[in-house]
Amino acid sequence: MIMVWERKKEKKKKEEEEMVRSTKYSLQEYLWTTMIRKRPTSDGLYDPKKKMSFA
Questions:
Q1: Cα three-residue angle 28-44-25, rounded to 5 degrees
Q2: 52, 31 Cβ separation under 8 angstroms
Q3: Its domain of life (predicted)?
Q4: pTM
Q5: Rounded CA separation 34/43 (Å)
Q6: What is the pLDDT of residues 14-27, one digit of tens each?
Q7: Rounded to whole angstroms, how far apart are CA atoms 49 and 18?
Q8: What mean pLDDT is predicted for residues 22-49?
Q9: In this structure, how many other beta carbons lie within 10 angstroms of the beta carbon of residue 35?
Q10: In terms of Cα–Cα distance, which of 44, 43, 21 is closest to 29?
């Protein structure tokens, strides 16, 4: 019983790490696309004077 529980814990941990990794990647991708496009500041996504902030 304990072995099964340990395995489930490991699997959950791996899934969480994978989720974090993909989230980090998509966030990085989002930052790059907004930086590269240099959108107008009206939508608040790109402002060279201000640091990036997420509401």
A1: 10
A2: yes
A3: Eukaryota
A4: 0.39
A5: 11
A6: 988 888 777 877 88
A7: 34
A8: 66
A9: 13
A10: 21
Q: Let me know: does 34 contact 46? Beta carbons within 8 Å.
A: yes
CA dist., res. 30 & res. 1, Å (int): 43
Q: pLDDT category, 11, cuts 50, 70, 90?
A: very high
What amino acid occupies position 28? Q
Of 26, 4, 22, which Cα lies nearest the Cα of 14?
Answer: 22
One-character DSSP codes across 24-45: HHHHHHHHHHHHHHT--GGGSS
Rounded to whole angstroms, the Cα distance separating 54 from 7 reads: 36
